[in-house]
Amino acid sequence: MRIAQVAPLSEAIPPKLYGGSERVVSWLTEELVSRGHDVTLFASGDSDTSATLVPGSKTGLRLAGINDHIASHLAMLSDVYHRRAEFDVIHFHTDLLQYPIFESVAPRTVTTMHGRLDLLDYRPVYEKFAYMPRVSISDSQRRPAPADTNWVGTIYHGFPADLYPFSATKGGYLAFLGRISPEKRPDRAIEIAIKASVPLKIAAKVDRVDQAYFEERIKPMLDHPLVEYIGEIDDRQKGAFLGGASALLFPIDWQEPFGLVMIEAMSAGTPVIAWRNGSVPEVVTEGKTGFIVESIEEAVAAVPKAAALNRRAVRRVFEDRFTVGRMADRYLAVYQGLHKTMTNGHAVTRKPQHAPNITMSEPSMP
Amino acid sequence: MRIAQVAPLSEAIPPKLYGGSERVVSWLTEELVSRGHDVTLFASGDSDTSATLVPGSKTGLRLAGINDHIASHLAMLSDVYHRRAEFDVIHFHTDLLQYPIFESVAPRTVTTMHGRLDLLDYRPVYEKFAYMPRVSISDSQRRPAPADTNWVGTIYHGFPADLYPFSATKGGYLAFLGRISPEKRPDRAIEIAIKASVPLKIAAKVDRVDQAYFEERIKPMLDHPLVEYIGEIDDRQKGAFLGGASALLFPIDWQEPFGLVMIEAMSAGTPVIAWRNGSVPEVVTEGKTGFIVESIEEAVAAVPKAAALNRRAVRRVFEDRFTVGRMADRYLAVYQGLHKTMTNGHAVTRKPQHAPNITMSEPSMP
Asked: What span, in angstroms and rounded, lies between the C-alpha atoms of B264 and B282?
């Protein structure tokens, strides 16, 4: 198929530093190319891809010091629109701006929703363009969306199976990985570790917006002999960090739309102890890849149980459900569904009263 | 003509409180309706207009506490696009988002640029959509824009002649009106008044972003017996405040694209002492409606000269150059130019290599 992937310009594809959705776009794009598809990637000029790269900006906008990213995206989206006839399907990862531009070819487009959908400010777009095809990254992510949203699938993220290789070692520590921020609840992680009398290693960055929270709330808790703060780590260090842990703590306090770090841990064979929030019950298989908890006490009780899980079985669930191959299979099925609808001539009207709703929900368990 | 006016949704039209461009949209819309044109105003639902109002949001977004205004604008612009066949011309006051959506009908659209054009973040849009018709609000505003921008006119703002009526009284004070902010240089105004030994009245609001500047830099200067700070005033108070002054001080330190307050003063017969910056040399007629200065000393010297100017002559220049009637005449000429180009079939291509450049520059002097 002739596929356009339209990435956000804020970071390179893959990102030079942090950037969850940008990594997903990269993994999907490379997998589609490796399967022989004709993929064009609209992304920042410093992106690294085996697809045909069409630069929408010289470099990733954030690291280039550009504060307002709208103009660059509008210019790129106009480029995509002018070239729309070259593609069987156009896959957006760009949040909001594409909807009014691509209404005339809506049935050949699909947007992956990478963020939370409960922000009222964005509601007018969710309602107005509800008929345009969308993919959710978990079923739970859909909850706040308008009832008539044209979901064409829930597709969980996936990445290459060899990215974080299986580690048979049962480490003697718990791991917290990601960002120090109030909704990630590193304070809960520390409390759990201390009550469980197990060492905790925290590998996390602190964004400027979270600096005060870090200084006032978290830093004073880092003095405990069981707690070690090792700062931000890169992809290579991540594998060893996760693989060496007996469990990942994911004590989140918000409606996480997916939570990449959970499947990163599973890839290494490391189980996950996670709060029942957002995508967690879909991603974690209770008693097999980890435990879903709702209190500090439940989390503390889960620590020895997680350490006793079969790490090979955790890895096998990852391989079944969360590889890039699996993700690409599902996106290709969505693309084919759109393409078929188009070539059958069903979806050529501008705004069908009853938009085709090609539902392809992921089986909740493998 | 069938005219769509597309307003920003951030404030009602006219705005409940502050909002320069929103007032201009209101004045223009009412004048076009009064001349018998079929005007549709896309704006917030709490707008007050004699045109046909199509609400793009329930109320103005800022006072409704909505932080991210993009989604509401995208939904409104989609509405406008679906109804594009109903209008001879579509006039945007909405900054950036309309360009990629309206490329297919670009020759029937015009955008008034209400802000500064020197921000690098917006450059990709200025370049990509340079062929789409634009109006500048001063010639000086155009300077940073790409050379191939399709300017179809410079049209100075204007408002109803009876809004701030002529006042023959020569007041005994200097006036500073607007915002307390570093680029407006209230500190210069205070220094000028003290050196000229003339009282200064400051009627200005302090935005949250300027609170520290106000507290640290300006408040300590307000103790001087010649200086009186009277806070924010409304439209009704403005007439008396400006009409009672011997001169308006406008000692700005930035490239002001237009500067409504200068013509508000002129409407009342009050001359303007302004720094040579941005639109100032186009708006102020040296020695007739005020004085253009480049230093505190020049400004101090201008104070008695301004007080000696003929206030009726100042008002006459306002009536010749800056009424809403004058502004509407020029916009209608632009609309007719677009319409003519369209009906002659010249401008039906998507992106002409040589876009029609209908230049209608304002004569610099009446």
From this structure: 15
Distance of CA B259 to the CA centre of its chain: 6
Q: Which amino acid is at A20?
A: G
d(CA B198, CA B248): 12
Q: Alpha-carbon distance B29 to B15, whole Å?
A: 14
Q: Which two tokens stand for residue A340?
A: 């078929």
Any B CB within 8 A of A308 CB: no
Both structure tokens of B145 = 């824009």
How many Å from the N-terminal Cα to the C-terminal Cα in chain B? 28
Non-local (6+) Cβ contacts of B67 within 8 A are: A121
**Token pair of A301, please?**
């009780």
CA distance B80 to chain A (A): 10
- Name the amino acid, one letter, at B92: F
Q: How far is A81 from chain B (nearest CA, A)?
A: 9
From first to last of the 366 residues of chain A, give the pLDDT tens digit.
Answer: 999 999 999 999 999 877 889 999 999 999 999 999 999 999 999 999 999 999 999 999 988 989 999 999 999 999 999 999 999 999 999 999 999 999 999 999 999 999 999 999 999 999 999 999 999 999 999 999 999 999 999 999 999 999 999 999 877 899 999 999 999 999 999 999 999 999 999 999 898 899 999 999 999 999 999 999 999 888 789 999 999 999 999 999 999 999 999 999 999 999 999 999 999 999 999 999 999 999 999 999 999 999 999 999 999 999 999 999 999 999 999 999 997 776 665 444 444 444 444 333 444 333
Helix (H) or strand (E) holding B327: helix B324-343
Contact flag B78-A103 (C-beta cutoff 8 Å): yes
